[in-house]
Amino acid sequence: MKSFKYYISSLLLVGSMGMALTSCSDDELDPNSIFPIIDETLDPTSATYQLDKFLRDNYLTPYNLDFRYKMQDVGTNMNYNLVPATYSNAVDLAVLTKYLWFDAYNEVVGPDFLKLYGPRIIHLIGSPAYNPTSGTMILGLAEGGIKVSLFRVNQMNITDFNQMNEYYFKTMHHEFAHILHQTKTYPSEFNTLSKGKYDSTNWGDRQDGPVASWGFLSNYASSEFREDFAETIANYIVKTDAQWAAWMDLAKRGWASPAEDERDAVFFCYYYTKNNSGDDADKDYCYASQVRFQKNAAGEVEYMYLYGEYQKGIGAIKKDADGKYRDEKGEICDAAGYRLDANGVRIPIYVYDVPDTDGLDGVEIINQKVQIARQWLKDEWGVDLDKLRENVQKRQLNYDINALRKQVYDIK
């Protein structure tokens, strides 16, 4: 089965967008808006009245931004089979976007910043946009500094904030970074820090460990310079302290490809785990996505998922009649699926470092990239990146979705 990698795209369409906006309609234009002057009276009997009024009062009026949740096929790539966002998910994303993006920026740089430099259209699309030939999935599009499209809205899981960040909020910050650097370019010094490690074609096959050690904050960042810049800003803003520390741990390690007889894969991490027997000669490769590959007695390669500091059981965990938990291999586990030794203690994972041979200091490169972005945002835009991150972190870890929904559902 093909696994899909995720990416975010920006389209430099300033000229064509400008022509479209001035030539496709004869409606009178407000001198302060790209949208025609129309009767903004909403129908209180409409099934979508509450969300329509919320969007008008919280996006269109203060920011001159058209938040489109009723998908417009003419505003999408007709090569993809796409469906509209559900109303309930559109409500959730509308209130969260305001709280985690617009309100966060307002608190740091004031309300006029996004009114002047923010997108003019946010377009929600219910389904993903897949590219089956490359095994990639589009998460978002930024078009000419005007429009941001967000995909996969109908698969949104409001209770999983890691997923929400990965698919939506990191995407928003990524796309906004594109809008800003399309207006004022960032220092060219940034492009030299990981020179020779970009791959616009095969980035989707790269694993977390190697790209971290090369100084990237995601595999998509390793596709090209400007995606790297946008990913640097977006990841710095949304990653928690624990997630940032975990990524830096990957960045400081060495990585290498496996021997041909181990497994046909792109990258394995260049450090080893030791079996519980304590036999140093019996070393296993540790995979970047935390999958351990080992050989059984028959010489066949087995997979064991690793989480944290302990070994995870293989497959579904079942409880025996005697009350013991076992994985699909029959190994004894606890209720959480972690393997246990003869004394009922979780089996730890021992890591042995080996030399980093790529000649790059991933941690230092990432820190340099963040500093360039930090200084550029301050000098060119008056934005304090660290204050923005602090504000977003506080908001994303402390919000009441039901209270936010009331902003829409309490509208009379």
Structure explained in plain terms:
The chain is an alpha+beta fold. Among the domains are: about 1-185, Collagenase (Catalytic Domain), CATH 3.40.390; about 255-355, no CATH class. It has helices at about 15-25, 50-65, 85-110, 110-115, 160-185, 210-215, 225-240, 240-250, 360-380, 385-395, 400-410; strands at about 5-10, 65-70, 120-125, 130, 135-145, 145-150, 255, 270-275, 285, 290-295, 300-305, 310, 320, 325, 330-335, 350-355. The strands form 3 sheets. Strands 7, 8, 9, 10, 11, 12 and 16 form a 7-stranded antiparallel beta sheet that branches. Strands 1, 2, 3, 4, 5 and 6 form a 6-stranded mixed beta sheet that branches. It is globular, with a radius of gyration of 24 Å. Residues about 1-30, about 35-40, about 255-295 and about 305-310 have low confidence and may be disordered.
Which class of the domain at 1-183 in CATH terms? Alpha Beta
Look at the structure and give the mean pLDDT: 77
CATH architecture of the domain at 1-183: 3-Layer(aba) Sandwich
Derived from helix and strand composition plus strand pairing, the structural class reads alpha+beta
Write down the CATH topology of the domain at 1-183: Collagenase (Catalytic Domain)
What ranges have pLDDT less than 50 throughout 5 or more consecutive residues?
1-31, 34-39, 257-293, 303-308
Anisotropy-based shape: globular
**Strand-and-helix sequence, N→C?**
EHHEHHEEEEHHHHEEEEEEEEEEHHH
Task: Tell me the number of strands.
Answer: 16
Q: Radius of gyration in whole Å, from Cα?
A: 24 Å
Proportion of beta-strand residues: 15-25%
CA distance, first residue to last residue? 49 Å
Total count of helical runs of at least 4 residues: 11
Q: Report the biggest beta sheet as strand number plus sense, adding barrel if it closes.
A: 7 strands, antiparallel
Q: What helical percentage do the residues reach?
A: 25-40%
